[in-house]
Specification:
Helix content: 10-25%
Cofactor: FMN
Pfam families: FMN_dh
GO molecular function: oxidoreductase activity
Shape: extended
Oligomer: single chain
Protein name: Alpha-hydroxy-acid oxidizing protein
Keywords: Flavoprotein, FMN, Oxidoreductase
Order of helices and strands: HHEE
Largest sheet: 2 strands, antiparallel
Radius of gyration: 18 Å
């Protein structure tokens, strides 16, 4: 099952491009900053949301749990 989750379809072109794009991003931590008042809000399609969290549909849930669809 790990290979299914970790891998990609066919020749994994999309997986390779996504991995390459992710590797081009620098995740730089902010150290020694005042974190007493953090605002994670943003605007999406003109709507203010408190935290940028999105859920997307998936399939084949039964691979992960016996009660899946």
């Amino acid at each position: 099952m790990f290979n299914y989750i970790d891998g990609g379809a066919d020749d994994e072109v999309t997986l390779k491009r996504n991995t390459s794009a992710f590797n081009d991003c620098d995740l730089v931590p902010s150290v020694l900053r005042d974190v007493s008042s953090i605002d994670m809000s943003t605007t999406v399609f003109g709507q203010k949301i408190d935290m940028p969290l999105f859920l997307a549909p998936t399939a084949m849930h039964r691979l992960y749990h016996h009660d899946g669809e």
